[in-house]
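Lab meeting, item 3. Inverse folding demo.
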């Protein structure tokens, strides 16, 4: 049987002047986790926030924190992000030459570890890691900004990743991030994704609960 689809609203599209309210809104609306986009102005051409903000919002919600690190040298900052309250940390394959060590290091803290691929990065880059990671995050936009258009070729990439995971018979989540709306969500789920990140589709809607329901396709 297929696993239920989880929805992870991205705080990137929230109103930063009232984060506690914005988080409460999606928690009440049935979000499964909160996606936190960490950008450093080097790996991606944008800057967001870091561990102090995560520590502060950790106090206002019980939602698991899904931390998406879009930063160079992620190995230098694992410890502060975990101390701030991350429940899952995802690093980009493009930023980490010693990915196996980094994934082990994250898991030694007792939290889950994910690895992300940019749209143009081939799946072969994570083939040797599938038995060791908890989640693969496929970017369906070029990372750096919310509100971009879903790249259609990623649907086939999701299906190919799903096949690789089934063949190995391992328990690995497939998260898709970028340009998710009810239409792209339906295609991503059909291809094998089980976690969907949605920034604009949830925070841009006047009814977060209805937006999440539409993304789940229920
Ligand atoms: O990682 C990201 C961008 O790099 C964001 O999570 C993503 O873009 C979500 O925003 P939207 O749903 O509006 O596309
Ligand atoms: Fe993200």
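The presenter then showed the designed sequence:
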């Amino acid at each position: 049987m297929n696993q239920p689809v989880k929805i992870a609203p991205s705080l990137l599209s929230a109103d930063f002047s009232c984060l506690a309210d914005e988080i409460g809104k999606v928690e009440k609306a049935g979000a499964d986790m909160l996606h936190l986009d960490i950008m450093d102005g080097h790996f991606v051409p944008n800057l967001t926030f870091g561990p102090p903000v995560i520590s502060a919002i950790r106090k206002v919600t019980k939602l698991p924190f899904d931390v998406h690190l879009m930063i160079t040298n992620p190995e230098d900052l694992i410890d502060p992000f975990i101390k701030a309250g991350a429940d899952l940390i995802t690093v980009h394959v493009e930023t980490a030459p010693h990915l196996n060590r980094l994934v082990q290091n994250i898991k030694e803290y007792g939290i889950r570890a994910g690895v992300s691929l940019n749209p143009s990065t081939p799946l072969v880059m994570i083939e040797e890691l599938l038995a060791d990671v908890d989640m693969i995050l496929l970017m369906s936009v070029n990372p750096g900004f919310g509100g971009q258009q879903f790249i259609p070729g990623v649907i086939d990439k999701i299906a190919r990743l799903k096949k690789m995971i089934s063949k190995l018979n391992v328990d690995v989540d497939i998260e898709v991030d970028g340009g998710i709306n009810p239409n792209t969500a339906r295609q991503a789920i059909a291809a094998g994704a089980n976690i969907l990140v949605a920034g604009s589709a949830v925070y841009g809607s006047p009814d977060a609960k209805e937006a999440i329901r539409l993304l789940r396709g229920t």
